[in-house]
Amino acid sequence: ACSFGSKLVQAHVINDTNAWCLSPSQESVGTVPVEISLNGVDFTDNYVLFHYTEPPQVLSIQPQSGSMNGGTKVFINGTNFNSTGTFKCAFGDRVVAAEFVSPSSITCISPSGHVGRVSVEVTSNGVDYTTNFVQYTYRLPVRLVSVYPMSGPESGGTEIRIVGMNFVDALDLKCRFSGLLEKTVNARYISSGAIVCTAPEL
Fold first, then answer.
1. pLDDT classification of 171: cutoffs 50, 70, 90
2. Distance between CA atoms of 200 and 116, rounded to whole angstroms?
3. Which pLDDT tens digit goes with each residue over 5-17?
4. What is the mean pLDDT of residues 97-103?
5. Residue 74 in contact with residue 120, Cβ under 8 Å?
6. 3-state DSSP call for residue 49?
7. Is pLDDT of 150 > 80?
8. Which of 51, 58, 175, 181 lies in disulfide reach of 132, CB 3.0 to 4.6 Å?
9. Which helix (H) or strand (E) holds 195?
10. For strand 65-67 and strand 134-139, is the pairing parallel, antiparallel, or unpaired?
11. Do 9 and 23 form a contact (C-beta atoms < 8 A)?
C-alpha cells in the first residue's frame, strides 16, 4: 500500500526498486508525505513529499491556427499555472516544452502536424494533462508571391494587394511591414491566392 498523509491506496510493484500508485483526492492544496508498505502494516519513514495543487485549466489560445510546419509561438491562457511546475503542451499526441509567463499564461512553440484540428492541453508534472479540448488548427504554409504596388508615400494609406498561396479567411489575418519601423496591420481576405492591406505610416 501507499500512504499519502493519512490516506491509503493500493500499490503496484513493478520490480525490486519500483512501484506505482494512484494519488487519492485531497480536500485542499498542500504537501503530504508519501510512504509505502509491502504488508499494509509496516510503512517506510523516508518522508518523501508529494505536493497537491489546483489543477491547471486551458481557457483559450492565441493564435488559434498556424503552419503545419510548426514553429508558431502559441500563448495559452488559463488558470492555476504554477511557477514551480514543469509545464509541457500537447498538440494532439505531440508534446513540447512550455515556458511559464504568469499564473494565467504560458507559451509553447507548436510542433509540426497534419492539416486539421487538434486539442491543445497542458501538464505541470508531465503526467496529468488538462482535458479542456481547446482547438488549434494546422494549415498549409502561406506562400507570398508578389505585392502591388511595390512602393507608396511614407504617410501610408496605400492599399496593397498581396498575391500568394494558402491564404485563409481568418479573424487574425494580418500583414507585417518590416524595415525602418516594424508595424502590423489588419488584412482583408480576397481569396486563397490574394489579400489586401493598407500600408501604415512610416
1. confident
2. 33
3. 888 999 998 998 8
4. 94
5. yes
6. strand
7. yes
8. 58
9. strand 194-198
10. parallel
11. yes
Report how far Cα 63 is from the mean position of its chain's Cα atoms.
10
What is the per-residue burial (b if ≥16 Cβ within 10 Å, else e) of 46-56? eeeeeebeeeb
CB 61 within 8 A of CB 105: no
**Can you tell me the mean pLDDT for 81-108?**
92
Of residues 13, 85, 62, 72, the one with CA closest to residue 172: 62
Model pLDDT, residue 39: 86
> Residues 56-63: what's their mean pLDDT?
94
User: At a CB cut-off of 8 Å and minimum separation 6, what does 88 contact?
Assistant: 95, 96, 97, 98, 108, 122, 123, 126
Q: How many residues does the chain have?
A: 202
CB atoms near residue 124 (< 10 Å): 22
Residue type, 8: L
Residue type, 78: G
- 110-112-115-120 Cα dihedral, nearest 10 degrees: -30
96: part of which helix (H) or strand (E)? strand 94-102
Q: Which helix H or strand E contains 187, and what residues bound it? A: strand 183-191
Closest by Cα among 68, 145, 149 to 112: 68
Question: pTM (2 decimals)?
Answer: 0.76
> Rounded to whole angstroms, how far apart are CA atoms 142 and 195?
12
Task: Please determine, for residue 180, whether its predicted confidence score (pLDDT) is greater than 80.
Answer: no
